[in-house]
Every structure is written in C-alpha cells, then in structure tokens.
Amino acid sequence: MRRHRPIPGSADKHPHRHLPPMESTYRYPSAIPVHPCLPAPEFIAPVSRTNRAERRNLQTTSGNDTRRATQCLFGGPSSVEKRRTLALENDMNLFDNFSMRTKLFLLSGMTAVLFLIAIAFTFFQVSILRHDIDTIAEGTLPGIEMAGKMSELRLRYRVRSLELLLEESEQGRSRMEASLRDLSRELQELRQQYRSSGRHSAEEYTLLDRVDASVAAYENAVAQAVGLLRAGDVQGAQVLRQTTWVEHANAVRDAIGALVDANHKNGMDAVQEAREAARSIITGDSVIVLISAILAVAGTLWISSRIGARLADTVGVVQQIAAGDLTVQPPPASKDELGTLIQSMSGMQAFLRQSMVSIHEGANQVASSARQLKESAAQIGDSSTAQSSAAASIAASIEELSVSISHVSSRTDDASHLAGESDHNARHGKKTVDELVGGIQDVRDVVTQAATQISSMQAQSEGITRIVAVIRDIAEQTNLLALNAAIEAARAGDTGRGFAVVADEVRKLSERTAQSTAEIATMVNEVQSSTQEAVAGIEHGVHAVQENSAKAGETGETIARLQDASRQVADIVAELNDALREQSMASTEVARRVEEIAAQTEETSSASVQTAAAAESLDTVADDLLQVVQRFKV
Description:
The chain has 634 residues and is mostly helical.
C-alpha cells in the first residue's frame, strides 16, 4: 500500500489540523538515504490509539514492504524475469512520457517521411524514364529516320542508275549522271550526320562503316558502267550491271537494312526499358503508400490501445476510490496529459486519505470536547453566583472612581488656562526675535556692500600702481635716451649744441617725472595699506554680524519650539479633560452595565444547563461521524 506525503498548505485549509496531536507513526525519515529496493520515505497516516484495526493494517503493510525489499536486495526465484519486465515497462513509460501532440506528431512525421521517400523514389524513376525518353527522342528515332532515308536514297540511286543504262540520248545520260551525283552527295551528307550525332552504339557505327564501304564499291561499279557507256560499250556495261553492279548494290541494301534493323532493335529496347521504369514507379509507389498506410493504421491502433488501456486502469482506480478504498495503487504516472490526470488523481487520493484521517481525529476531538463542555457547563453554573456578588462590589468602586474623575477634571481646566498664557507670551517673544534678526540681516547687507566697494577701490589702486610703474620705466628710458643724445651732441661739436640743449631739457623733464611717479607710488601704497585695513575690519564686522544673526535665528527657533511645546501641552490638557469627561460618563455606563451583568449571570446559570444537554447531543453526533469515517479504507 502506497503511503503519501502530506500535501503542502493543506493544514492552512483545514483548521482541525491544529487540534491536539494524537499518536502518529512514520517510516524512513527524509534525512536518511534510502536504497532503491526499500519503500520510499513517505508519510504514514496517523493512527489513533483506539483504532486497533488500523494498527493491524499498518503492521501487515509494513511486513509486505519488508518482504518485497528483502526479495529485491537478495534476489528471488524470478528476479531475472522481474528485471526484464521492469525494462519493458521503462521502455513503455518512455513513450508514455511524450505528450499527445508529440505522439501524433511522431505518427504524422513517420507517415510524411514514408511519403517523402515515395516521392523521392518517384522523382528518381521519372528521371530515369525521362533519360530513356530523351534517348529514344534524340537518338533512336533520329537514327531510325536517317537509316530509312539512307534506304530510300539507296533505292532511288539504284533505280536512277538502271535508268542511266536504258537512256539512249546523250542529253538524257548527262541528266541522269547529274542526278546520280546529287543522290550520292545526299547519301554522303546523311551518313556524316548520322556519324556526328554521337548517340549511337558501337554496333551501329560498325554497321555505318560497312555501309560506307558498300556504297563506295557500289558507286565505283556505277562509275565503271558509265565509263563503258561513254566509250560506246553498252554490252560491257550490261555485263558489269549483271555481275559486279548487282553484287555491290545488294551489299549496300544488306548493310543499310542491317543498320535499320539495329536502330529498330535499339528503339524497341529503349521503349521496353521505359515501360519497365513506368511499371517500377507504379509498383514502388504502391508498395510505399501501402506500407505507409499500414504503419499509420498500426501506429494509430497502437497509440489508441495504449491510451485506452491506461484510461481503463485509471477508471478502475477511480471506481475503487469512489467505493471507499483509498489504498488502491494508481497507475504509473507519465509526462503526457494522461499522466497529468493520473498525478492529479493521486493528489486527490492523498488529500482524501489525509482528510479522512483528519476527520477521524476531529471526531475524536469533538467527542472529547463535548465531555469537557459538560464539565465546563457545571463550572459555569457555580461561578454565576460568585459573579453576582462581585458585580455589587464593582458598582460601589465605580461610584468612588466617578468622584475622583470629577476632581481631576477641574484641575485640568486650570492647567489648560496656564498653557494658553504661555503660548501667547511665546508668540510675542518670537515676533520680537524675528524683527531683531531682520535688522541684523540689513546691517550685514550694508557692511557687505561697503566691503565690496572697498575691495573694488583696492583693485583700482593696484591698477594705478601698475600705471605708475610703466610711467617710471618710460622716464628711465627717456633719461637714458637724453644722455645718449647729449653724448652724440658733444661728439658733433658746434653743430650739435642745439641738440644738446634739447637733450638736457628732456633729461630734466624725465627726472621730474621720475620724482612725481615715486611720490604717486608712495601715496598709492599708503592708500592700499589703509584699504586693506578697512577691508579686514569690515570682514571682521560682517563675521560678527553673521554670528549674531545666527544666534538670533537660533533664539527665534527656540522660542518657536517653546511655542509649539506650549501649544501641544494645551492640546494634551484639552484631550485629557475630554478623556476625563468621557471616563466619567463611561463609569456611569459601567455601573449600569454591571447591574445588567448581574441579571445576565442569572440567565447564564440557566443556559449552562442547556449547554450540558447540547454537549451530550454533540457527543452522539461525533460517534456517528466516526462510524461514517471507518467505512473508508486508508
């Protein structure tokens, strides 16, 4: 008997699974490796202490599993046959693992392959037949036609040569000789065309050589007769016609006739081969189509019988399950659609087994709970009297609680008034601090603007310093130029005196310029020094203003937080006051409810008697449910 593991998630769907556990039996924990011959480490349904028949079934099943495992491990009298049977079943299961679509596709594919083979065979045979037809059309028929024309030309040549011997006029003989030459030329061209076609056998070419030799001898005999006629020896020409002429004419006739017969024979052979190829095509296609049909029908019957047998096994198992036997072994599962159905049926069977076991446990638990319910009903009756006396004392305590709540409520009103005054003062302080912060920010903006302007002035003074340096460099260069000009004027003598005076004036002017630039540089340096000191002082002032502004902002935030805290305190006090009022009302309501509880306690005492009677009825129902569950074999 196959034991199934519990279905995951089934405990959540069946609340009675959480009842107090009863005695359970397990075999082969999943953490221990199991030999293939041994039973799978699967779940054994719980067995109650009271159901001894289930224990005997479990022991019998365990003994059967042990005997099968021993026979598998140590070999039995039919172990070879069992292995062969197992191999055959594995092969069948391999085919059963294919889906229905795959099976039908394999059957259709096998049939299609056979039909493709038939088509390929047909194409091959048709190509052979086409080759034979081409041979007949391009080789045999033209050969027969040319051989017939040769025979016709041979006959016309012979008749014309005889007419030449009978012609008495010279003009008629000349015409006959010209006609013989034309016939000889046509016969020669026809033989060359026959030879150049290249589609004839060696025998035909041998016969063609024979025709060439016979025609040459025949034409030579005719030429000799024509020569005798021209010489006036008509009797000699007639004798030649009756001897050599006739022999060569008959030789030409026989050679051309043999060539015609050879072409006719080759044509008949080609036609016979074409007929045989056509019969082969018909026979081969018929055989392949017949084999394809037989295999398709056999495959269809085999697949349908295989599916029908498995469906019959599945239906038998379903009927046994419907009859109440939940221990029946389901058919081997596979990976096709029927295997999916079998797996679903196995899951349903396992679920039903577990459900029956759970229902059995639940029925036992219900019976136990019914007995406990009867005992509890008696205890409820005893405790109802104690509850009545306790309700009176609770009512007195609630009255005292109402007085205390009224006193606390009056004190919370005073606290709410103080919290309101604190909130007003905090709002006024925050407004003053906000104005102070605004003034400090204005001062910081003015000082920052002054620092910016002084920094700009310092940058301008630095530009003046650079200009003064340039002017000083120009004055020095001018002084050097004036000195050089004075030297050059001294060298020039009297002619350079005027230039020397000008150079001296220029030198004096450059000296005064240098003195002025030095004074300007000194003044600019003093201005820059003063500007730097002013910038440093202003930056220090800006830093101090920023610090005071930050501190004032922090003070404002602190006052704002104090304002929020006082507002929250006021809200809390208001909520507390409301809660106290509600508690006062609730205490009054509780007192009234306690009186009602006292009245209901008396009703509970009478209801406990009815509960005991219902528990007795529930115990009877649980026994009936146990009898129904025992009909199922799990």
